[in-house]
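Fold in tokens:
===
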Amino acid sequence: MRFSMNLTANASKLTARAHIFGLKHVACFALALMLLAAPALAAPVGQGDALTIGLVGGNTDFYNPLVLQERDLAALTHLVYEGLVVIDDDYRPAPGLAERWESSTSGETWTFTLKEGITFHDGTPLTAADVAATVTEILRLTTDEASPYRGVYSSLRYMVTSVKATAENTVEFHTRRNNYGFLFSMNFPVLPAGQVQAARPVGTGPYSVAGFVPQDYMLLTANENWWDGEPALKQVMTIFHQGSQELVGSYEYNRVDAIITRSLNAAQYRSGTNTLNISYRTRQLETLLLNNSSYELEDVRMRRAIRYGISVDAIASTAYMSMVARTDSVMPPGTWMYNDLTSSVRPDSRQAEALLNELGWTDTDNDGIRDKMINGEKKKLSLRFVVYEEPGESVRVNTANQIKSMLGGLGIECRVDSLGFSDALARLKAGTFDLALAAFNVDPVPDPGFLLISGNTGNYMRYKSDRMDKLFTDLRATLDRDAYQLKLLEIQALMVEDCPLISLYYRNGAIISRRMFSAARDLREPDVLRGLEKGPTPGR
């Protein structure tokens, strides 16, 4: 009975897909579709079931995870490839392909021992030589002058100085970052030594790629020889879409069981009887940068006044439809490394006005803009506000206009310049701005030094603090987990005190689904489908 019902349900899916996408390639995966299980509303998937997912992308003819540029497609490749270390639900490093690891006393050398009996999808055994070859390729990509793209894992160059296989199942790393954070960089996907530059390499993960047609579909099937047991789902079929509107339409017309999206349209779906809205955190941190070298902002009291004058919660609920994870520091909220300092940064217009008055900025001519005599000349409190937008969105510009309105109520004028990314970046590098909305793709390693260390790559605020620099020096020499955490908490406390920038939120994406398929608590990009291979908790 189940088999015949699946045939009927998926035949209708196939017909609908032919109308939407044309008949191209339909025949080549019709058999695979007929094997997929029909969706069960608000019911968890069972052992041996299948799942049909929709996402935007699939435009490249390769899926090598070292050079993959499509963000959503990475959710699939994380089911195919694995790293030495996984980052668990508590955002702690846990064994992946590595059974164990140990560091030298100084932390300059780390040795990883691989689990025994792991094979790639083509049956070849995993060895330390594969790990070394993968790392060597990642480091090569970072210096490839012929390519403008340095690879997904390019930050590994800051962590690894050299790597070598010391035995068939042990690999040794040398690092200049001799601290606990090093372990978080070991989550890169390991490829066979001979396939590190292949367009479609095999992996060791719970699923292998059984079929892939760019802009059409990708079919993953369970790896029956997976080292961690039989995967819960037998198949994962992914249908690619060209845009968010088309993607949502596929879900509404029951062509897919679930969709993965960062579109704000996902906010219209609320978890209920027939649909689950599962949030996942992206790596995109949205910030308001404050140019600490501008004469208006060089005094910390002005920067704090601006922070007091902005209601980030109001912006999140309107401009972003609450599809964000609010953060008062640069670390992900709800994790062991997050310092909850909400009481210090909540909006307070009276505090903002008191600080502005204390600094001598008052509205002497009653034109609604504060002014001040500087070197014998009256200056208006008028700030250059740079913002750039992502293609197809207006959310950041809307945010800038809301901030402009909020600060305007305090007598601070903002002159918003909406620019393309290249022009905005040039302004940040030149320092010709006072405020700027900017997003950063945060590395999994819990170390925000790129933003806060004097003169570092992301420190467009021109923030300089000997105290902060010393904290990072200490952090990067700390091997003990608890001591590392304490340093991170101190860094965040000093950041709130000095206010070199205002952290706003991490962007959220959403999985809209009719079926619960994972028991993972902390879903985050790019490992959005983490836990799918184990299935949901029984009775959940």
